[in-house]
């Protein structure tokens, strides 16, 4: 079909990055693209804070004795690592950066439905983030990111109240972003863009937004109750005050399990886009991928009790949660089959984002598969609260969500900035991250199998070798994460101009908008006349 | 020489029955991963874009294939669920004749008491080939009693009893951990489990292997029972004031609400501390609460004594 972009390879003279130049024009911008950049900068800062904390306690774990830091310090570091990475990096990562930037572009809209609310969400996030930084500088918190009562409400001597408030406030940012996306996707699609023509990235964000809106308030309530129990002694969870500690675990996991899907579903959306483009193929089983996202969002609400098989929860409850957990694994496996199937009879180009996406497939297969060990009641008893769990959720959260986020950043970087990064370095970083990641976390599966409990400051001598592997891997992984910072920054100044569509990709953001896009996204309101992913197999790369 | 094993030594009947499932899952997930990698690499090379080839893109309509793999996945998932659940059920279902040992967790140690009152800290001596049931509670935060060689763990909660049972199969010394993060010294809250020949255990119980002076649990429980005057109401002949306690443990009784309850340690505990919460049918909620009058340990002694009361002739006669 004929595209009507005037000279697609020339960078437009005026685009969203340069049309206004003051600091205020960024801090008070209502443009979804600029807000996405604000998020990109802020979550990157938190990612590196969380990463430094991890590097510090991995160094401590080089030796069985707790010699590098005190137990209290160690406990604060892993707690803050969890809080920072989950609440301030992973949950906003793909939705708030790539989702914010791309959803209006992909559906042919000028902006999200509520631009002011979108900016407000970023401010709410920053207030939460500032509280988080305050926790950090006022001595930290040592309850674990799970805030289990009565440890958190009665026994911990650290700044639990402030940490709880930081997570509480940040939750509202997530709720408001989800709400904004839901309304945007419902009401602002371009003419001709029916539900089954939507890119799967949009379906994934739709499913994610449902979870954000429905589940986040529950954890907000749970965390708030922790705070009032701690400060005013209102007995809710601590049995000494007449409360029930299991109740807290139910409320906490009712959000925190679906939160896993808040982190991974948008990643799945990214992977669908990247694989279809790089295989130059229509996605295999479009409706199955789309509906599996929705199925995961719905069934994902009903599996939280699998975190509590040994908590003292009734046996029959555990069995029900177990069977639902086994069923929620099915749509994830269906997605893997469909992504692999998309390669069949394609014209595959091995770009940096494609390498990241293939890394995602392998790591997510392991991350999802090891979830079976923990979803099955009989095998979870031994593995619960060991390093096996740590390895499992890092395979899903880092091997899955972070790999997908990096695949997405590498894929849309030319669109976001109008510049090409060094492609060879891009591929190299994908390979280093993959190797470093496996070296870090695969040994932790073995440690968990052997019975090493998580959150241990010192450990038995026979576990040292595997811990040395893990710490060495973490250093490689760190280099893999630093590389993109360098070549991305480099590309901003020295990178070649990208042109509107360097990958030869399908989709409104590539075919109808310049790189970087103009302040109002499109010169003419786009009309959609074909299915998503209408690749011919002859699209050429120009990177 | 590195002695490497994927799973630690197995030393309980549960470990023996659950280990095949671990190996099945390792092979299944490992196989799945390898197949995904192999196909990605094979197609990735075979179908890479080459300028000399003009291969039109592929537009699949593979509904049958989609349905087929969905059905196969559901069947496999349910199969694994059933396998694991049968084992789980077994881990819950303690034999009636199990040896009863009580465990108290506190920051950051495990306090253990044997039926004859023998105490130990951070060590647990048990006889081999004998079912053992642990009744556990915590004085402060949540802990978790974890013995990797037995493939078992159970959270230990404040103000509540949880139980765990096992039958050790091999004498030896095995590590014991706290698995639920419980504060500063969490990683040092552990110790050792000694599985002994029954004769050696009997000798150890008599104090021949060290340990603290035994204080007979039942004797201590009986003293409390007398001091608190439990028998004033819970005796045959006292008109309908309280149910007979002799032989009541392990039976199923009906509540005033119509609900039925199995009388276990947890229910006895609740009935002592919060008697009017669930009252046995046919009785009025007359009993006062003994909350804040009993230490956790005293409560355990009292319950142990009540459990030990044999079914008496009178009771049986009355039922007839």
Question: What is the oligomeric state here?
Answer: heterodimer
Work out the largest interface and the residue count of each chain. Answer: A-B, 90 and 82 residues
- Number of helical elements of chain A: 16
**Class by alpha and beta content of chain B:** alpha+beta
Largest sheet of chain B: 5 strands, mixed
What's the structural domain tally of chain A?
Answer: 1
- List segments of chain B where confidence is low: pLDDT < 50 over at least 5 consecutive residues: 313-320
List low-confidence stretches of chain A.
1-5
What is the percentage of strand-forming residues of chain A? under 5%
- In which range does the helix fraction of chain B lie? 25-40%
CATH H-level superfamily title of the largest domain in chain B: Cupredoxins -  blue copper proteins
Radius of gyration of chain A: 23 Å
CATH fold-type name of chain A: Cytochrome C Oxidase, Chain A
Top CATH class of the largest domain in chain B: Mainly Beta
What number is the mean pLDDT of chain A?
94
Q: Would you identify the CATH architecture of chain A?
A: Up-down Bundle
CATH superfamily of chain A: Cytochrome c oxidase-like, subunit I domain
Q: Give the overall shape of chain B, derived from the CA principal axes.
A: elongated
Span of the ends, CA to CA of chain B: 69 Å
Helix content of chain A: 55-70%
Report on this structure.
The complex is a heterodimer of chains A (543) and B (320). Chain A is an all-alpha fold and 543 residues long. Chain A is built from 16 helices and no strands. By secondary structure, chain B is α+β, with helices and mostly antiparallel strands. The interface between A and B is large, with 90 and 82 residues.
């Amino acid at each position: 079909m004929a595209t009507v972009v005037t000279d697609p390879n020339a960078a437009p003279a005026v685009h969203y990055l340069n049309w206004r130049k003051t600091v205020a024009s960024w801090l008070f911008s209502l443009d979804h693209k600029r807000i996405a950049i604000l998020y990109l900068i802020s979550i990157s800062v938190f990612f590196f804070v969380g990463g430094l904390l991890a590097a510090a306690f991995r160094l401590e774990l080089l030796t069985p004795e707790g010699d590098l830091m005190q137990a209290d310090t160690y406990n604060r570091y892993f707690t803050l690592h969890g809080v920072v990475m989950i609440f301030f990096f992973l949950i906003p990562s793909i939705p708030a950066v790539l989702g914010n930037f791309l959803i209006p572009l992909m559906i042919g809209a000028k902006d999200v439905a509520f631009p002011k609310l979108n900016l407000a969400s970023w401010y709410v996030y920053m207030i939460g983030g500032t509280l988080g930084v305050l926790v950090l500088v006022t001595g930290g918190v040592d309850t674990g990111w799970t805030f289990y009562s009565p440890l958190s409400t009665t026994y911990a001597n650290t700044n639990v109240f402030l940490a709880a408030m930081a997570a509480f406030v940040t939750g509202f940012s997530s709720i408001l972003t989800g709400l904004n996306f839901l309304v945007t996707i419902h009401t602002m699609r371009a003419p001709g863009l029916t539900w089954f023509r939507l890119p799967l990235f949009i379906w994934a964000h739709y499913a994610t937004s449902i979870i954000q809106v429905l589940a986040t308030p529950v954890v907000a309530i749970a965390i708030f109750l922790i705070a009032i129990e701690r400060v005013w002694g209102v007995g809710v969870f601590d049995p000494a005050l007449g409360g029930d500690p299991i109740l807290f675990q139910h409320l906490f996991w009712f959000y925190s399990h679906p939160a896993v899907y808040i982190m991974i579903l948008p990643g799945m959306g990214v992977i669908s886009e990247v694989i279809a483009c790089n295989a130059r193929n229509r996605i295999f089983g479009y409706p199955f991928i789309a509906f599996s996202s929705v199925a995961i969002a719905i069934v994902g609400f009903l599996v939280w009790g699998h975190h509590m098989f040994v908590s003292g929860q009734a046996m029959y409850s555990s069995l029900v949660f177990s069977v639902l957990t086994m069923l929620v694994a099915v749509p994830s496996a269906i997605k893997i089959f469909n992504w692999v199937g998309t390669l069949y009879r394609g014209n595959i180009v091995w770009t940096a984002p494609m390498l990241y996406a293939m890394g995602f497939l392998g790591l997510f297969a392991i991350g999802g598969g090891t979830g079976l060990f923990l979803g099955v009641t009989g095998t979870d008893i031994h593995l619960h609260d060991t390093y096996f769990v740590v390895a499992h959720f890092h395979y899903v959260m880092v091997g899955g969500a972070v790999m997908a986020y990096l695949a997405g950043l590498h894929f849309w970087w030319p669109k976001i900035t109008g510049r090409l990064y060094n492609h060879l370095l891009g591929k190299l970083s994908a390979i280093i991250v993959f190797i470093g990641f496996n070296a870090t976390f695969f040994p932790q599966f073995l440690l968990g199998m052997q019975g090493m409990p998580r959150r241990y400051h010192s450990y038995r001598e026979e576990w040292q070798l595997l811990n040395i592997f893990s710490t060495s891997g973490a250093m490689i992984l760190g280099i893999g994460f630093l590389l993109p910072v360098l070549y991305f920054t480099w590309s901003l100044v020295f990178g070649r101009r990208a042109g509107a569509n360097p990958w030869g990709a399908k989709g409104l953001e590539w075919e109808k908008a310049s790189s970087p896009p103009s302040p109002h996204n499109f010169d003419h309101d786009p009309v959609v006349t074909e299915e998503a992913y209408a690749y011919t197999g002859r699209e050429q790369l120009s990177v | 020489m590195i002695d490497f094993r994927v799973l630690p030594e197995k030393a309980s009947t549960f470990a023996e029955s659950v280990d095949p499932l671990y190996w099945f899952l390792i092979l299944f997930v490992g196989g799945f991963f390898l197949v995904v990698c192999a196909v990605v690499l094979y197609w990735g090379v075979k179908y890479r874009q080459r300028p000399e080839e003009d291969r039109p893109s592929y537009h699949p309509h593979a509904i049958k294939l989609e349905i087929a793999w969905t059905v196969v996945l559901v069947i496999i998932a349910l199969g694994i669920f059933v396998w694991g659940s049968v084992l789980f059920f077994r881990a819950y279902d303690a034999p009636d004749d199990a040896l009863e040992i009580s465990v108290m967790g506190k920051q950051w140690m495990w306090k253990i008491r044997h039926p004859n009152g023998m105490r130990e800290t951070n060590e647990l001596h048990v006889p081999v080939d004998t079912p053992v049931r642990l009744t556990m509670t915590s004085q402060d935060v949540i802990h978790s009693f974890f013995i990797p060689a037995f493939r078992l763990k159970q959270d230990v909660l404040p103000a509540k009893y949880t139980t765990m049972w096992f039958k050790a199969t091999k004498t030896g010394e095995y590590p014991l951990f706290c698995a639920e993060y419980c504060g500063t010294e969490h990683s040092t809250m552990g110790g050792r489990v000694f599985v002994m020949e029954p004769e050696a255990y009997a000798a150890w119980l008599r104090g021949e292997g060290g340990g603290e002076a035994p204080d007979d649990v039942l004797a201590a429980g009986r003293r409390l029972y007398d001091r608190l005057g439990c028998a004033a109401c819970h005796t045959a002949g006292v008109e309908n004031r309280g149910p007979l306690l002799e032989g009541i443990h392990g039976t199923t009784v009906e509540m005033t609400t119509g609900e039925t309850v199995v009388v276990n340690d947890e229910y006895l505990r609740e009935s002592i501390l919060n008697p009017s919460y669930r009252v046995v049918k046919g009785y009025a909620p007359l009993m006062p609460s003994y909350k804040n009058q009993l230490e956790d340990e005293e409560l355990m002694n009292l319950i142990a004594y009540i459990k030990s009361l044999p079914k008496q002739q009178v009771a049986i006669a009355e039922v007839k």
